[in-house]
Every structure is written in C-alpha cells, then in structure tokens.
C-alpha cells in the first residue's frame, strides 16, 4: 500500500483534518497552494495556530471572491466564496466547548461557535446564485423547530431522460455542517441527474449551536421528518418533477450510521453507508482494557474514578480532549463516563434495541457499506463487516462491501 504524505508527523489528528480539507479541492472547497500556505503556519496540536491559519485563508478567499464579482468573473467568484466558506468552517473546527460552571449539565459551546457557523452559511449562500444548477433553501419541520436544508436540483440539460428526478438525502455526522457536505454529493449529484438534499438535524450545525438541540440515536425519526417534508414539498411543487419513489440515503462516519437507520424506512430505495460504526460503545471503548471495562460495569470501579482517569488523559492529548469535549456538547453531557454510557444508545445491535431485535433486519433496500482499512477511527472488521453481515434480509446481489 502506498504511503500518504503526512503534513503533521507528530499529530495524526491535525494531519487527518488537513487531508479532509485538501480532499475538497476536486469540487472547489480548497486550493492546494492555499492549503500548503496554511499548513506552513500551523503548529501540531496547537488549536490557536490552526484557527489563525484558516481564518487568514478565508479572508483572502473572500477578498478574491469580491474582486471577481466586481470584474464579472462568475466562476472565479463562486469558487472563491466556496473556499472562503470551507476555510471559515475549518477555522472554528478546533474550538473546544467548556465544562459547565457548576460541574453539572451539558458542555458549553465556545463563545465563537455560533458566529463562525453563521459566517460559513453567509459565505456559502453568496456562492449559491453563481452555481450552474438551481438550489432551493428549505425549512424542514422537526418538533417545534425548523431544520435548515438545501435542495440541489439538476439543470435541465443534465436530467435523466424519460423519468422523474431521483432524490439523494445526504446526512452529516458528528462534526460537520451542510455547507461542507456540498463537496461530496451536491457538487456531483445534479450533474448526474439527481436532486440532492442536505440539512442539519439535532446535534448538528445551527440546530446545536443556535437551539442547543442534542443528537439522538434513533435518527430514523429525523429522516422520517425529512421524507415527510419532501413528500409534501413535492406535492406542492409538481413542476419540480421529484421522484418520491426513488429516494436514496447516504452518509459517512456517524452519517453512515444515520443512513443505515434511515434505510429501514420503506420509502428509502437505496443506501450508501461509508465508514459507519455498528455500535458506538464498542467504537468508543475500542482501546480500553476489557478487564478495566468489566470492573466498571460490575461496579468495582466508580464513575468518578473513570472521569478522573479521562481527565488525566486529556491533559496529555489534545485530540482526546477535543473528542470528549465535542461529544459532551452534542450529547448534552459533561461527564466523560456519562458520555461513554450514552454511546450504548447509538447502536444497530439487537441487544441495544427496545424490541431486542437486530435493527438492520428491518432494512430491505439495496445497500453499499464501505470502510477504510487505514481509518483512524473505525475498524473495518469490527464495524463495517458487522453492518454488512447483519443486513440479513437483503439478497447478496443487492448488498455490497467494496
């Protein structure tokens, strides 16, 4: 296997997130020279230098976008606004939520978290009118709130002949936003004749930062609201020619887990799940001693001790500190031990379901599930293979693991 270049040899985390940004270049989310310039000013595991580097690139890209707009260069303006939005997202990525003042309740958002998120949306929305295909802003009812969404439609010249427009629902995961999702499916789907819908649900993006809504394990409730909305929206807008009988769901990482949950809905006709976890507890405790976990589960070790151990580990690992802080924020918790126990609810395993049955047995549509052998988070055999093997009601020719 060929080895990739490591931008930060001493920080797998910073290297991973840099590659994540660099991976958006194909669809205009980054420029190689700008990324290299930013990397040159970042110190490994130093969130302050990370924030400054990407904020600098965001400001420069925005200035280029404004100049291109004044010169009537539509393509250059669109690309620069997309990069400005993505770099702004990156600038706030390493922000750390803080523990509650009284020691109880959820982690508190970083003071700049909401303003950065709003700025990402503002910059991205400036690119929308410059795109080559129609993009509609939508509001999706969820409980007493409205989830923000973007519906990307194919241009007439790229419609699939003699049929309605198939729909792809693109799910975000634990740490992204719908503007970043653009560089996956929305940038490519409309060119292939697909409509693509992105949105931010509980525990994600604006819904977390503005409304404080935490993430829920039964994502089929959220995706069900989205499909209900699409059905009503399509009925009210028949001229859009959306095909409600051709809905596909897709997501990566936690978004891959969400896609598999959503695929149990009979209205979903296909599913793409990239790097999903099968059970978040197994994922979160993968590198913890089994004897240690057993002692905790049997009550021989208290949660207070677990919290102290995790606190000590965070002092020597910025990545772990960031991961625990983020999890506490989108779970609405502050105790590391509570977070780990809460992870048990995010599972496809039958033993974790209310009815005791394997969740994936409900899925009957075609599914592709994939995993990376070099993933820094999800083990292929432990999670990807288990997801595939437990799709027991799908014929072999209708499920695939690359």
Automatic annotation (TrEMBL):
<comment type="pathway">
    <text>Mycotoxin biosynthesis.</text>
</comment>
<feature type="domain" description="AB hydrolase-1">
    <location>
        <begin position="188"/>
        <end position="306"/>
    </location>
</feature>
<keyword id="KW-0378">Hydrolase</keyword>
<dbReference type="InterPro" id="IPR050261">
    <property type="entry name" value="FrsA_esterase"/>
</dbReference>
<dbReference type="GO" id="GO:0016787">
    <property type="term" value="F:hydrolase activity"/>
</dbReference>
<dbReference type="InterPro" id="IPR000073">
    <property type="entry name" value="AB_hydrolase_1"/>
</dbReference>
<comment type="similarity">
    <text>Belongs to the AB hydrolase superfamily. FUS2 hydrolase family.</text>
</comment>
<dbReference type="InterPro" id="IPR029058">
    <property type="entry name" value="AB_hydrolase_fold"/>
</dbReference>
<protein>
    <submittedName>
        <fullName>Alpha/beta hydrolase</fullName>
    </submittedName>
</protein>
<dbReference type="Pfam" id="PF12697">
    <property type="entry name" value="Abhydrolase_6"/>
</dbReference>
